[in-house]
Amino acid sequence: MRLSGLFIYPVKALRGIAVDSAEVDALGLVGDRRFLVVDETGKFLTQRSHARMALVDTALSADTLTLSAAGAGKVAVSRVPDAAAPLRTVSVWKHEGLLAEDCGDDAAGWLSDFLATRVRLVRIGQKFSRAVTKPAARPGDVVTFADAVPLLVISEASLADLNVRLVAQGEDALPMNRFRPNLVVTRSEEHTSELQSRFGISYAVFCL
After folding, report:
1. How far apart (Å, rounded) are the C-alpha atoms in residues 60 and 75?
2. Among 39, 88, 176, 190, which lies 20 to 30 A Cα-Cα from 95?
């Protein structure tokens, strides 16, 4: 098995970044899904309901997250947790009551204008805690704003097989980025059963 792609998504549901290397901490890949766009009630937004989120680019420096979009300029916020930042109660799927740091009015205004709906941008800080609830999780396992787990894996062979099935049914083939994986692996067919037994899946799931 060989790692053929490595990606992080600084803001859940916005565009990701291909990287050559990444550090790992208790939450997963550093810089991955540490920010979240929420509505005024604190509920998370995704491309499923707000397709324009797919047009927002993300960029990271050592201490800054920058959001940009064609014709809309850009806005930058600190990626460093701030104990003095206002806290917002947010939800991601069944996880409710999560405490996240509000990133300020500039980011909220830029995103609200671009998405044509009132939203806030929040960040993981010291008060944030979200346990992994998958059956394979161990006590103390935690996750970011990702759907369920710290690392999302897809194999090139699985995507190729899926696309063969889609095209045979008259559907369009899907690109890799539709599945928003962190790790893309190349494998030989003899690894199929091993992947299924270890991860419980043969295809990646949509994780917008």
Report:
1. 12
2. 176
